[in-house]
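Ticket reopened. Same input as before:
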Amino acid sequence: MSLAIDQNALTARLAKAERRGKIRAFLLVAPLLAFVLLSFVIPIANLVTQAFYGDLVSSNMPKTTAELATWNGTMPVPESLCESFVTEFKAAKVKDAALPTRIATLVNREFSGSLSKLRPVANNELSAPYCGALAKLNDEWTKPEIWNAIKIVSPSVSPRFFGSIRPETEENKIHLALFGRTLYVAAAVTLFCALLGFPIGFLLAHLPARTSNLLMIIVLLPFWTSLLVRTTAWIALLQQNGVINDTLVALGLIADDQRPVMMYNMFATFVAMTHVLLPFMILPLYSVMTGIKPNFVRAARSLGATPFTAFWRVYFPLTIPGLGAGCLLVFILAIGYYITPALVGGQSGQLISNIIAFHMQKTLNWPLASAIGTLLLAGVLLLYWLYNRLVGIEKMKFA
Amino acid sequence: MKMTKGLSVLLGAAAAIGLTAAAHAGQITVISWGGAYTNSQVKAYQEPWMKKTGNTIVSADYNGGLAEIKAQVQSGNVTWDVVDVETSEAISGCNDGLFEKIDAAKLPKGDNGAGPLDDFVPGAITDCAIANIAYANVIGYDSSKFTGDKPTKVADFFDLKKFPGKRGLKKEAKVNLEFALMADGVASADVYKVLATKEGVDRAFKKLETIKSSVVWWEAGAQPPQLLASGEVTMTTAYNGRLFTPAVKENKPFVIIWDGQQQVFDNWAIVKGTKNKDLALDFVGFSTSTKPLADQATYIPYGPARKSSAPFVGKFEDGKTDMAPHMPTNPDNMKNAIVQDVKFWADHYDELNERFVAWIGK
Amino acid sequence: MAASHSADAGFVRFEAVEKTYDGINLVVKSLNLSIGRGEFLTMLGPSGSGKTTTLMMLAGFESATSGEIYLDGERINNIPPHKRGLGMVFQNYALFPHMSIAENIAFPLQVRHLGKAEIAERVRKALDMVQMSGLDARKPAQLSGGQQQRIALARALVFEPKLLLMDEPLGALDKQLREHMQYEIKHLHERLGITIVYVTHDQSEALTMSDRIAVFNDGIIQQLAAPADLYEKPDNSFVAQFIGENNRIAGRVVSITNGKARIDAKGGTFDALAVKCTAGQSTSVSIRPERVSIDPVQADIVFDARIEEVIYLGDHIRIRVSVLGSDEFVVKTPNQNNQRKFNSGDTLRIGWAVEDGRALDA
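Engineering reply: fixed in the latest deploy. New output:
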């Protein structure tokens, strides 16, 4: 018994001794924790919520929302629905003059042209029977489309924005195609970065210190110039009457009227993005390569491997952690890039991030932007998971 | 607005502006597009207003879009008072409850005594915003590239045989669809009527398709003159002011085709929830009165939104160039002009732009 | 063993080999070395003495600046490493971390395109040979240092190389394991009869394992001899000093007669074997501590020494004395019953045979 008491006391003493250390440790990381929470966790949670949740209609027009939920989609709509819609819509205007237009804007996103049909409802005197009054206002109210649009936007929690990422008409089908193009561009840029970055990283890791320092500065140079300057420099180099074409013509290598098109196409996007993102590939590769002892390759050679076999079966696999980290970095950064491709890529420079920016800044359709962003985030997480399964995240080495 | 200094440092520069605003009661923050445009506003609106009222203005730039304003309004931390916005944004911002309503009837009368509702040109007054100037989307070309006939009308832009070379177009549905219809023979007055139908939209895209492979797409207003200067394109759409400056100041051979010009207003809007609403309203009223609007034209060829300003428009700041012929609102330039229909675009912007983006990608 | 290498004395031959990295300093100077088939030859020397460079030239990772290297009668200067057919064990083993133990051992067989079944069989045998069966699937990082060492050996031997090179292979192990591995390697050598060239800076390792030892210093082989000869009959004072414990007495050669040198040292004159000295020049006489007797009954040379320090080492006692101008002179005496008591400051009578003193270069 006394032993048990002693042990308890000991445990308590240990806990007390450790608590002080824990509190100190917590206080030390608290600023960072708060920063991460404020600048990362909360915004992302907010983003995901925005993509699913919006109570503008359901909180201001609860009866309409409830009735629409049971409406079977056939015309004519029940008079009770018309009545609760009209009264609640008008009540919303009394509550806040901007509310009807805000609701109308939501509906308009689902059914183009609704904005101008809804606003008069709030501004005109309407009396029973309400369905008839609405029909008199505009005969759109006798068709199911507009009611359907209101029905779609009314629930507070819904995946509707994920639905509108795939609009039904053939002409508007862009989101999937843009997702595909974004992945394609990111994958291609990652590949080019890997192909170019590998030999450069190798040189950096194995050249004498003085030469490799100079090379490192050249590699890091893009980091020290602004994105727009770099992009504009590529425009000046690659355009039809740019430095490269002028030089080729002056050297007589191509005819003046046969200048190759290197600007405002996919080629320019690849060149400019590869240039901008290359350091993110080189640095992890370099850090891994400096850690590979020359004895590994020597061992392989002494065991009978040709230089190529020694490279491919021994050196290369040892660089995988760096290559993986570099590819993951470049790919994730490339997925979010849109300024550079938009400026140099011409009609192929439209990527999914442009659409996010477009809905954020121009149409103010934040829920849709959030939905696309959430999908992009999910895609990146999926990649991360895949990478973890294939290579192992604990093996990853950043610079 | 009672803040300790330490707290304001924590909350950053935005809050610091608020703090100084509290310290000197008469101060507002005015946000505009920067460059020569903001410069013209400082000279013509801000400096005279500050001199007249004794208040001060903090002038800052932005790149357009309503995202920042929406964030300020939603967080309740409004630090921008007056913002220069395009009409379409003025309307969608107004619909989204981001701007204060402005009663245009209470604005100053014109110098000629005309009431404000009559003095402003049609389309200049919206629920939440008052236009200050109108700029135009025009077609411009490099005259040194065409030795024989020169292009004179919108249709010439789409005629690659007669006027060879690449074309610059803004990467947006707006403006391009209107130009396409006019080039396809639709009268300027009917453009929006046609565009409201499915067939009209198809027709516009079909016309655009004829030059698609020769198009260089631009995004920022500074790009078109640069594309012309570098020879990347021979003809491009542009904001008229952007072509004026290199043509007059640097003697570039840039020529504007006024046929089919599409006028758009730049407007003052007041951010909802600002603590300085009265001062902001006073500034908006002053800057959109007859004289300041006319003065602005000394610095940039954008047309005043008031009819009464027209007689006061003089010469460019170089002292020799007459501004009137360069104004979108000049009667000679207005023969086949349209005013961008913001109501149409409010209804159809999302839909048409999605189709446009999809079309570009194909 | 001595017989076996004389049978094919020139299995590996270095002829006038020189190596410089910077074109100024020679790391290896005019190296001539002949290694017999089946011999265990150790290159011993301090770091920077040229032993590792010599090994790397033999392996093909460094090229000789001048001179010829022959293996089994073939000149190999221009043959790349992978065609030399040498097994090599590296410092820190250089096991491929991304491959399992079995894959590591199979590697040299795979690059030689052997059949799957044969590879499996030979990997199994190799693991048996180093008593590591059953660890095939582990990764190198999961093994202890000694286990890794054995795997490295198995990998270097599995393809039956003509020659096994070992570059300080035991450097990373603790003392006990190191000694154990020394015996294992030696037994393996005896069992397989393979030629081994071994590099180390640890003289006891070299003495334990080798048939012959080449002592390197300053890019030159100072002495090439069997371990016993190296210890008993060092050719010069570097070797005497580097191998085992050594007492040095500085003096001057008065005269040399019948291979005996008369040495004039501070505090006395005595005779020693004239190995590497010239009459009239200064010399350094080397005497192994264990050859010095205390209170000699019968000795050629006897001196009185003063005890400076007594160190008890269990099985023997080490006594540092000053004699003939050296206060670093060490005498060892076994710890026996009825041991006489030694005290610092006492006078000790010591003596040795003339043949045990070797007069070497100063």
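Strands of chain B lie at 27-32, 56-61, 82-86, 129-142, 167-170, 215-218, 235-239, 254-270, 303-304, 338-339. The two ends of chain B are 53 Å apart (CA to CA). Please confirm and we'll close it.
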